Amino acid sequence: MLAVDKTSESMTEKILLIEDDKSIAELIALNLRMEGYEVSLALNASDGFDKVYEENPDLILCDVMLPDIDGYELCRRIKSDERVRMIPVIFLTARKGLEDKIAAMNAGGDDFISKPFEFEELFARIEMNLLRSHRTHDVDNLTHLPGLLAFLDAVEERLEEQNPFALLFVALKGLRQYRLVYGDDNFERVLKLAGEIIREVIKKEGSKKDFASLVGIGKLAVVTVPERADIFAHSIMRLFDQSIKKYYSLSDLVRGSITTLTRRGAEQNIPIMTVHIGGCSNATRKINSRWEAIEIADEVLEYSMRFTSSSYFMDRRKQ
Fold first, then answer.
1. Please, are residues 62 and 74 in contact by the beta-carbon 8 Å criterion?
2. Which residue has the higher pLDDT, 181 or 105?
3. Model confidence at 9: pLDDT above 70
4. Is residue 94 part of a domain?
5. Total structural domains in the chain?
6. Which of 92, 265, 269, 307 has the most CB atoms around its CB within 10 Å?
7. pLDDT tens track for 248-276
8. Helical pair 71-79 and 98-106, crossing angle rounded to 10 deg
9. What does the pLDDT average to over 86-105?
10. Is residue 2 part of a domain?
11. Are 143 and 214 in contact, with CB atoms under 8 Å apart?
12. 123 has which bridge partners?
């Protein structure tokens, strides 16, 4: 996963981190700065609330358990003020239950990540929420797909109409490392390819009611009817695996990998990029909210990402 590209100092996104454990806060801040973000720290809710107005951050990372007021109440105060309510808030907490995530959303939070977490996951959540903040319903110039808010509306509409639907999350594994080796221009060509493939699959095998969007850098979503989910997924994998080879040098294709560096400077071999798909459907189980649908599809996608070759899994559980 990638942090949003920063081509100049003036474009650096600023993150306000509100975390009462100083050692944890400093560790998170260090990794965010290494990723290219500007970071401001607050060790309690009161200080954090003041810094929202003083520093006007692009995104807020907020612990739920704070010493003065909890993160939920802090978020409610932020979201009740028109001047700052559009700043994305991501909750950080040791709580992992679905009810806790629903509580976070009810407080006005934009996302929720459970501790302990991998920094790659944190970076991905930050990317997704910055995209939501910047793009709203606009069409992405590279993929020609609508953004995250349009996707949320599409899922909500199907739930309200009580129509059977399937949600597929599509992710490109190895995209971040590819960008480091091949540069921004080729990175953008791959994102464009992914959008073209999904739009072509829907055009040939779907209908006008099927929906696709860009929900993060290297992560796309498809909303369709349950009976087309498998067809879409297998077509996307086939076309991507056929097409991605032209975006690599012959030497990398022969070797089957690219060589890049870890954050500690050690060499690592990253396989040729693959596509992974995880899905869910209300045809097999009851889904009560769009957040529940996202939670289930994300869980299945995470499992799919464990495989070395392109893979697809659909949630088949009854509950």
1. yes
2. 181
3. no
4. yes
5. 2
6. 92
7. 999 999 999 999 877 777 888 999 999 99
8. 30
9. 81
10. no
11. yes
12. none
Question: What CA dihedral angle connects 297, 127, 60 and 33, to 10 degrees?
Answer: 130
d(CA 77, CA 83): 11
Q: Are residues 224 and 104 in the same domain?
A: no
Q: Do 50 and 185 belong together in one domain? A: no
Question: Residue 270 sits in which domain range?
Answer: 148-314
Short-list 283, 280, 270, 287, CA closest to 304:
280
- Non-local CB neighbours of 95 within 8 Å, separated by 6+ positions: 64, 114
Tokens standing for residue 65: 């358990």
Three-class DSSP category at 228: helix
pLDDT surpassing 70 at residue 17: yes
Supply the Cα-derived Rg of the chain in whole angstroms: 20
Q: Is 78 exposed, middle or buried (0-12, 13-18, 19+ CB in 10 A)?
A: buried
Laid out side by side, the sheet with 89-93 consists of: 38-42, 14-18, 59-63, 89-93, 111-114
Q: Is residue 281 part of a domain?
A: yes
Helix, strand, coil % in the chain, rounded to nearest 5: 45, 20, 30
- If you average pLDDT over every residue of the chain, what do you get? 88
SS3 216: strand
DSSP notation for 2-34: -PPP--SGGG--EEEEE-S-HHHHHHHHHHHHH
Side chain identity at 306, as an amino acid letter?
A: R
Q: Is 265 left (phi over 0), alpha (psi -120 to 50) or beta?
A: left
Q: For residue 300, tell me if it sits in a domain.
A: yes
Amino acid letter, residue 280: C
SS3 (DSSP) at 170: strand
105/162 same-domain check:
no
